[in-house]
Amino acid sequence: MHSVIQRGNSILAYALSVLACLTFICFASTVFLNYVTDVKINTVKVVVKNVPDYSISREKNDLGFLTFDMQADLTPLFNWNVKQLFLYLTAEYETPSNELNQVVLWDKIILRGENAALDFKNMNTKYYFWDDGNGLKGNKNITLSLSWNIIPNSGLLPNIFARGSHSFKFPVEYTTSRM
Amino acid sequence: MDVATLFDDVKRMNKRQFLYQVLSFGMIVSSALMIWKGLMVVTGSESPIVVVLSGSMEPAFHRGDLLFLTNYPEEPVRVGEIVVFKVDGRDIPIVHRVLKLHEKKNGTVKFLTKGDNNSVDDRGLYAPGQLWLTKSDVVGRARGFLPYVGMVTILMNEYPKFKYAVLACLGLYVLVHRE
Fold first, then answer.
1. By CB count within 10 A, which of A48, A96, A173, B70 is most buried?
2. What percent of chain A stands above pLDDT 70?
3. pLDDT 10s digit of each residue in chain B, 179 long?
4. Contact A116/B at CB under 8 A
């Protein structure tokens, strides 16, 4: 004898286990894929200013401004287990006070189905390039690199560096004029 | 199976059988606890699985999605990672992405976070006067993602009566049901 509750229970249990199994297959089918591609980054205009960062204190900190070109075709990165790419452009550099500084200058969310062939010319940064002190003026080695965080339907959340980065130097003088 | 037959089962049990049922109930509770504590040891995080409670990381994470965390001390925090952190004066941990990071030679690191769906960084969410997060604020780094599963706990937290009903049903079932 099977009551309604027993039947419902077994249907639910079966449906859930099928769903769990499919989810695992979806995860396992993409877990070993390589998500690295090439990107071309170039800076167009680079200046540095020395202004107070009122969000921290009244002390003057170095504030970099730059515009950049970027070309990348990220279409091959998408598959059935990539819901979204989170792109971020990082500036990485060393200063006398800090061994490692990483500042995200720009980011972008690309959902599956959206255009993933990027070609930006003379883009402005999305976030301010504040240094933690005065380490930008005359800094000879700032590396810009693009990375992406893959958001799957279910699975791991890897952060991947693109092949191809760009290094530049900041001018040795502060810019005082308005831009 | 109606309630009368349920309790018939209990009546027909002798003392030893009833004790056996209580013990197996205890086994279930303690093995769940062991799994949780074991995960804490393996992942190094004080809360290895968290449920996303807000929409501040949309469209990557929605309310009710499940995140698996690790928190190995030897793995450095880097920009672009999704960290789960606690702020003094807030009970609920926050899941956001690292936007800026400064690391000194002696290894001390300070960083700023931002939610993908928020337009400003998290300084307004931190404790008054707190400008940066440090490693000690971090509960874990998001490594794995499973959608929707956490919806059950959100339901339970929002409707406590539902939680007690579910717990009571499960407890009764385990105690009363004969193998």
1. A48
2. 99
3. 556 665 666 666 778 888 888 898 899 999 999 999 999 999 999 999 999 999 999 899 999 999 999 999 889 999 999 999 999 988 899 999 999 999 999 989 999 999 999 999 999 999 998 999 999 999 999 999 999 999 988 988 888 898 899 889 888 887 777 65
4. no
The CATH number of whichever domain residue A144 belongs to comes to: 2.60.40
The CATH homologous superfamily of the domain defined by B49-148: Umud Fragment, subunit A (2.10.109.10)
Residue B82 contacts A, CB cutoff 8 Å? yes
Residues A17 and A89 in one domain: no
Q: Is the Cβ–Cβ distance between A85 and A129 less than 8 Å?
A: no
- Residue of B45, B65, B122, B137 marked active site: B122
- Tell me which residue of B67, B48, B78 sits closest to B142, measured CA to CA: B67
Same domain, A18 and A41: no
Catalytic position from the list B31, B45, B47, B96? B96
pLDDT of residue B72: 93
pLDDT surpassing 80 at residue A10? yes
CA–CA distance, B31 with B133 (Å, rounded to integer): 35
Number of domains in chain A: 2
* Domain ranges within chain B, ordered by starting residue: 3-43+164-176, 49-148
Task: Evaluate whether residue A80 is within a structural domain.
Answer: yes
Peptide bond before B59: cis, by omega within 30 degrees of 0? Answer: yes
> Residue A16: which domain range?
1-30
> Cα separation of A65 and A124, whole Å?
8
Question: Does any domain span residue A179?
Answer: no
| ipTM associated with this complex | 0.89
Q: How far is CA A177 from CA A48, A49, A59, A126, B32, in A?
A: 11, 9, 19, 21, 64
